[in-house]
Each structure stands twice: as C-alpha cells, then as structure tokens.
Amino acid sequence: MGYPNSACNKLPNEFNACRSKDYFNLFLFDNFIKSQIINTSNFRAAIEGAGSTAYKDFVPFDLEEVLKFIGILYANAVSPKPQFQRRFMLVAQRKVFGNDAFAKVLDKHLPGSRFISGQHFWTQFC
User: Fold this and answer.
1) Could you tell me which residues come within 8 angstroms of residue 99 by beta carbon, excluding any fewer than 6 positions away?
2) d(CA 33, CA 97)
3) Contacts 24+ apart (CB under 8 A), 25-28
4) What ranges make up the beta strands (E) of 46-123?
5) Residues pairing with 50 in the sheet
6) Does residue 1 surpass a pLDDT of 60?
7) Confidence band (pLDDT; 50, 70, 90) for 40?
8) Taking Cα atoms as reference points, which of 102, 4, 120 lies closest to residue 61?
9) Fewest CB atoms within 10 A around its CB: which of 1, 4, 63, 115?
10) In terms of DSSP bridges, do strands 108-109 and 115-116 run parallel, antiparallel, or are they unpaired?
11) What is the DSSP letter of 83?
12) CA–CA separation, 105 vs 43, rounded Å?
C-alpha cells in the first residue's frame, strides 16, 4: 500500500520506510477493528432487524470490507467529493467525479450468485 515519499528518505532509518498504512495500523489495528467496529456494527444491525425484517440481504460485516470502507472515508478526507454517493459512480456515469476503482471496491460477491452493491452497503453501514 503506497510508498514513502522522498522527504521520508531524510528521516532516521526506523521511519524512512514507513507508509501511510503503517501509521494507520498504529491507531486502528485489526483486533481493535474486529472487537469494536465489526462486532458492534453487526450487533446493531441485528437489533435493527437486518437479515430478517429490514435489509433481508444483509450479510455480517467482515474485516476486509470494513478496511475498504475506512479507506474510502480516508480518501474522501484527502480528496472530497461534493456528494459522497459519487464515490460509487463509474467514470462512464460521471466523467469528472466517477472513479472505477472506488465504484466497485465495496461490492460484495457472495456464494451462489448473490451480490450486494457497494452503494447498498454504504446505506446499511450508515
């Protein structure tokens, strides 16, 4: 995930190879994300009826998709869009605001031929 910029080469050895992900992992490490974000989100979704009365296609969140979700929030902080929903548009749909990489990053392909779009995931999570 990324490479250090040229200014990093001037830092002491233990810092000059650090990437953005290394700093991210200092604060949001996998065990914390699993115990606090994923478990809490899945618990709240169950309380709200996800999978039964509301959002019948709900599938519990996992580490990979939560990391992607956090990455999209991080990207939006670095390069904000006027409407967050535009993160999920293809370049063919919106030439200026579309982004093919982000548009499909949260898409969830499930066993069988089940599929949940990233846009739908966003509405479930928020």
Assistant:
1) 87, 89, 90, 91
2) 30
3) 28/70
4) 108-109, 115-116
5) 54
6) no
7) very high
8) 120
9) 1
10) antiparallel
11) S
12) 24
If you count them, how many residues does the chain have? 126
The whole-model pTM stands at: 0.64
Residue 109 forms beta bridges with which residues?
A: 115
Write the CA distances from 41 to 77, 90, 109, 111, integer angstroms.
22, 28, 20, 22
The whole-angstrom separation of Cα 88 and Cα 90 is: 7
Stretch 74-78: mean pLDDT:
76
SS3 27: helix
Please give the structure tokens belonging to residue 3.
Answer: 């490479």
Structure tokens at 93: 């749909």
- CA 79 to CA 43: how far, in whole Å? 32
| Joined tokens for residue 9 | 């080469």
Look at residue 17 and tell me whether its pLDDT is greater than 80.
Answer: no
Here the contacts of 23-27 (C-beta below 8 Å, separation 24 or greater) are: 24/74
Residue with tokens 């409407």: 83
